[in-house]
Amino acid sequence: MKTKLRPLPPYDFSLALSYLSRSSLEKVDVVDGGQLTTLSVSDQRVFLLRIYQEGSVEDPVLVIEAEGKEVERFTEEILSEVARRFQLDVSLSDFYANIKEDPVLLQLAHQHRGLKPVLASSIFESLAWAIIGQQINIRFAYQLKNSLIDLVGLKKTIKGKTYFAFPDSARVAALSYDALTSRKFSRRKAEYLVDAARAVESGLLDLADLAECSQGEKVKRLTALRGVGRWTAEYCLLRGFGCQDAFPAGDIGLRNAVGRFYGYQNQPTEDAVRELGEKWPRWQGWGTFYLWFAQSMEKRREKKAGS
DNA sequence: GGCCAGGCTAGCA
DNA sequence: TGCTAGCATGGC
After folding, report:
1. A24: pLDDT confidence band, cut at 50, 70 and 90?
2. Which residue gives the smallest C-alpha to C1' distance to C6?
3. Which domains are delineated in chain A?
4. Which residues are within 8 A (CB) of A32 and not within 5 positions of it... i.e. 6 or more apart?
5. Which pLDDT belongs to residue A42?
6. What pLDDT is attached to residue A307?
7. Are A42 and A77 in contact (CB under 8 A)?
8. At a CB cut-off of 8 Å and minimum separation 6, what does A74 contact?
9. Which one of A89, A248, A260, A283 has the largest count of C-beta atoms within 10 Å of its C-beta?
10. Is there a contact between A25 and A9 (Cβ–Cβ < 8 Å)?
């Protein structure tokens, strides 16, 4: 199956690819030669997707090629999932209009014109990834994520090449804590992760239902889980549910980015970041994503210059 | 070798 | 309500 989507312009898929390739350890979303190769898993079915952009940033066309059994029957589902994950139907002009009081963010938006937040492939993945990433550096977080994928991730070999998908909640719920602690998870992190997966499996945390709730209710229900604090919930809202105004203001990476781009002498406090975000009404999530992205691009540039 | 990393909990005042 | 020790391992 090969089909095309027309994202709301401007849109630059190469920026999404840059974001997805921010770690060399990433093995679910494979970026190579200007295209993304990834598995799409839904309802026990696995499809291999190749996604790339044709046309320009101002007149974008996104091409989606999908392989798998009876893929034609699932075309609509696959396309809607791609549109959701890459926020293709959300207008950047609304974002631009709502950050005009902030020249710094406006400049970054100009510099990375066509960037839209990239969501995780599922709500559960965003929650699991946030738990994994708590209080540890990103590189180590990727190592833990890959251990989890080795243990219970989905693997599919096509034409001699193996592709991986992040495990769903059922697979994680079936894990023992020891299986994770033997792979360098701390005891607590193993408990938080497996217990969250079990909460989803038992229906204690109904993610489909949660999607329909208000932002406040989402945070309330998520933080009711042991191991899920405000940061984790906000992260999940931003990268899982795609809430445009989710705002993990306490995030260390965001505070560092604000420190860099807004010229702070010392790392700004969470309160200072929250105050800054008032200049991006209803779009704090996108502002956060732009700052994360710009920071990772700067770091990559510095590393390249230093090597 | 020490401090920091895309935090959170439990215990205490 | 607000503060802090402890968690645990890797990177720099």
Report:
1. very high
2. A188
3. 2-89 (3.30.310.20), 91-111+121-155+170-301 (1.10.340.30)
4. none
5. 80
6. 59
7. yes
8. A42, A45, A47, A66, A68
9. A248
10. no
**Protein chain A, residues 141-160, with a C-beta closer than 7 Å to any atom of nucleic acid strand C:** 143
Instruction: Render the burial of A169-183: b for 16+ CB within 10 Å, e for the rest.
Output: bebbbebebebbeee
Distance of alpha carbon A120 from alpha carbon A207, whole angstroms:
14
Q: Report the candidate in A156, A164, A132 with the shortest Cα–Cα distance to residue A26.
A: A164
Which residues lie across from A37 on neighbouring strands? A30, A50
Which bases of chain B come closer than 7 Å to a protein CB? 4-10
In this structure, are strands A60-67 and A45-55 parallel, antiparallel, or unpaired?
Answer: antiparallel
Please name which of A40, A38, A82 lies closest in space to residue A61, comparing C-alpha atoms.
A82
CA atoms within 13 A on the CB side of A238: 26
The mean pLDDT of chain A is 95
Evaluate whether A71 touches A1 at the Cβ level (below 8 Å): yes
Token digits of residue A110: 């100009």
Nucleotide nearest to A140 (CA to C1'): C10
Report residues 212-251 of A contacting strand C, contact meaning Cβ closer than 7 Å.
Answer: none
Tell me, rounded to whole angstroms, the distance of Cα A108 from its chain centroid: 20
Q: Which amino acid is at A143?
A: Q
* 3-state DSSP of A121-176: CCHHHHHHHHHHHCCCCHHHHHHHHHHHHHHHCEEEEECCEEEEECCCHHHHHCCC
Do the Cβ atoms of A257 and A272 come closer than 8 Å?
Answer: no
Exposed, middle or buried by CB within 10 Å (0-12, 13-18, 19+), for A200?
Answer: buried
